[in-house]
Structures are given as C-alpha cells and as structure tokens.
C-alpha cells in the first residue's frame, strides 16, 4: 500500500472520489493506485500529484520507494 499517498490525501481532507474526479480518473482506479495494485500512466500520475500538491515529484507514483525515502511531508 502507498501509505504515504493515503496519508497525504487525509492531510488534505480529500476523499478518494475528490482526488479521482480532479485528476480525471475513476475512483476505482485511484483506489487501486493507492493500494499499490495498479500503476498510473505518467499523465495520470502528473494529474494526481497536481491535485495532492506534489507536482514536481509525480514520478513517485510510478516507483516503489520506501516510505522513509519520501520527503513529501518535510516541506
């Protein structure tokens, strides 16, 4: 599971539906991404990252980086 993605969504007080709609993907597909069952296309990753406020690090949605290596919450 991409726990960091879920934590970031919670921090922004967004539902999966909110993120999915703003990123022009289905809620079901977003759920699969958040649960690490599917990887988004680069285009979808950029849109999701933009919605959640990390547009410069969108590529992290395509990687399986350990949570301790992620610096989204450090500013």
From TrEMBL:
One of its GO terms (molecular function) is DNA binding. It comes from the Bacteria. Residues 5-58 form the HTH cro/C1-type domain. InterPro entries: Cro/C1-type_HTH (IPR001387), Lambda_DNA-bd_dom_sf (IPR010982). This is Helix-turn-helix transcriptional regulator. It comes from Anaerovibrio slackiae.
